[in-house]
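Re: S-adenosylmethionine structure - here you go.
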Amino acid sequence: MNRVVKKTLSNVFALKIPRKPFCTEAVKVAGSTSVEAFNELEKNQTFSKVSPQYDIAIVGGGMVGIALACFLASMPMTKLLRVAIIDSNPALGSSLHIKKEDPPDPRVSTVTPASISFLQDAGAWKYVEKNRHAYFSKMQVWDYTGLGYARYNARDVDKDFLGCVAENKVLHNALLSSIKDSDFKTTIYPSRLTAMSLNTSSKSMVENTTSEEPLSARGHSAELQLSDGSSIYAKLVVGADGGKSHVRDLAGIKTTGWNYSQNAIICTVEHTSENGCAWQRFLPTGPIALLPMGDKFSNIVWTMSPTESNNRKSLTEEEFLKGVNSALNYGHGPHPTSSLLGTRDMFSWFKLDETISTNEFFEIPPKVTRLASERMVFPLSLRHANSYASKRLVLIGDAAHTVHPLAGQGVNLGFGDAFSLSRIIAEGIALGSDIGEVNLLKKYEAERKSANIMMMAILDGFQKAYSIDFGPLNILRGAAFHGANYISPLKKSIISYASGEHKLPIFF
Amino acid sequence: MASNHVRNLNRIITIHRIFHNPLLNARSFFSDASLPQTHPSHPSSLKDNELAKFASIADTWWDSEGPFKPLHVMNPTRLTFIRSALCRHFKKDPYSAKPFEGLKIVDVGCGGGILSEPLARLGATVTGVDAVEKNIKIAQLHAGLDPATSTIEFCCTTAEKLVEEGRKFDAVMALEVIEHVADPAEFCKSLAALTDPDGATVISTINRSMRAYATAIVAAEYVLRWLPKGTHEWSSFLTPEELVLILQRAGINVEEMAGFVYNPVTGRWSLSDDISVNFIAFGTKSKNT
Ligand SMILES: Cc1cc2nc3c(=O)[nH]c(=O)nc-3n(C[C@H](O)[C@H](O)[C@H](O)COP(=O)(O)OP(=O)(O)OC[C@H]3O[C@@H](n4cnc5c(N)ncnc54)[C@H](O)[C@@H]3O)c2cc1C
Ligand SMILES: C[S@@+](CC[C@H](N)C(=O)[O-])C[C@H]1O[C@@H](n2cnc3c(N)ncnc32)[C@H](O)[C@@H]1O
């Protein structure tokens, strides 16, 4: 009786935002033009007393902050936004040319298929492919006890690859290049944020009128003070300023977290031939991972006690490499003689996991012959912001959550944040919302917090249960299949592992 | 059955003299001791000392956790409906960030401007009118803080007065207002008269015959927080059928109707074909009247 006059609701009201393939022509050489696009209006604003007004101020132009700008540039709803990026990092301002022959950087990220598809849609991935990168389709995980090993092959899940390793600078530069391709209005402030006033009430806006500017020129805006003495206004402030986020502190957002009494050594090494597989071995002191980086290079992430890490960092190159080769080979124990899958009865829970290649033999990782970068040591810690969003403010990337480098997940979680936030901003614009409105921003928080916490809980579970670290490979797999509904069997096995039902530290 | 609701009153505006703490109670925003005021107040007529005074009250209208929370929470949902309905009717590009460019829209009973502002951001030329002067000042002050909305024309007047002035609009909005007016049938006639022959009318209101669970949540918000005490009985709300009927008599054909359903777990509203709680109707002028 109440339904007298309804009509085809479903198709009328479904608001679809199309994803347009971005930038089909005029592919510029990476880094050939500057992103700095001061238009005339902005120039005038900068030189007169009136502070420029933006829709969004992204504080921190690291991989995640730039990814947000890149995603916004690629959607019809958001590409007209005026965006300021505040970061004193010189990599943003100058035209950075990355050459394939440049020595490899120790800072790399293992990019999951989900992140790759975000970057593809935004037009950035093609620039990653122009530089050094390594897709890998095989993984091998084993431990020092010699009990067993597991191998994974992308083939088994009908995929071409399990992930891709690229240097952070390559990812960063690819994102910048794709913004340059667009006509997106981005202004880069080579400066640092020093103070911030969010002006969340109309009352404060009216009462704090000190300048000659009309109220409407500032809008409902946050005011940001920069280290060069200038200030800008923005309707939305995005804190993408990393683990020690100043935006987070200025907004009074507290964090929860702890440090693990373990460090990771990160460095790049060279082999005599190209490495095509991701390797991980669990040692009594913690796992060591060897990730292919392209050419003949690999990246090493090796967890150990702080004392051991400091010792290994100061060893000569020759001694250090000897340690690496031993850790990846006979060190601490023999090679496994059988595949874990050979003993189906004992490991029946493995049946959940169809990605394990049943008929591949154990292999020894390629020998490391040269140290190709400095050795960097980082303490392992976990930190999570209690809130991601308040009026006129959101946190993304490491500013919202820091997992340690070893997980290889930091940037993937951050790309997920940036992608989700860009879609929610687009949705807000489609409905005429003020993009700094807290109800809108809380949607972003709701979407990302659960995903991030789940990942962090898994990481922490591993840490606690075995007091050794989980490796990038396990987590990578978790993330890789997250979107493809592989999650339930996967989660089951992760959880049963972490909760202590299966004590074997070789896993998946 | 609509005749039950046709009151024998000349004035459309209801005046209520119950005053509560203006910062705590939304009711006071629907009444004004100095009513009716029909003179338009332009931005320039707001004095500086008044600005500060109204600014603090404005925060109440605009506090998304405050007394008007239901309107804020419902806003994206009703805008989804309005956006699709108007884009289709006026053949506007649904993928544009400003699809309403070129449309003249009046928001009748605009309150603090919660609907007027998004309409302006979507490109429309917006006029917001409300019978309560205080609301208009708040709306002006708040919209004035953002260049994207500072162009909205706010007037303290009624739909009836606008009709007398001979104003016409491409689209006429009256969201969550009809339950406050004394004579819904007369009110609908005024809305029809303000609508251009090729234009559209959008009305939303609460359903009288709500289901039990919704009554607990939604009715509490409506009756306890919004409605002037003692003046509106539950029975004075309309059902969708009644609304369709009185709109039809006023010369408006309802072409689309959607329900808003409330999810108490997420605290969000969504559009559905269930019109049993709160509903929104889109109509066009009947060609033969
Ligand atoms: C040493 C190290 C190694 C890592 N290795 C890996 C790895 O192998 N794989 C992996 O997936 N993840 C790794 N991570 C994590 C990964 O790098 C981060 O998750 C990722 O970089 C987060 O990106 P972000 O943009 O959020 O923050 P960041 O990359 O930290 O960027 C923050 C940016 O904000 C800027 N900034 C800071 N303060 C201000 C301010 N006040 N005003 C303006 N700008 C400011 C900084 O200049 C910087 O450019 C590593 C992290 C560290 C620290
Ligand atoms: C519940 S509020 C709705 C505000 C706004 N339409 C919205 O949905 O966000 C109802 C508003 O209608 C106004 N109002 C009630 N009767 C009116 C009338 N006859 N003419 C104009 N405004 C009226 C009240 O002053 C109040 O601001």
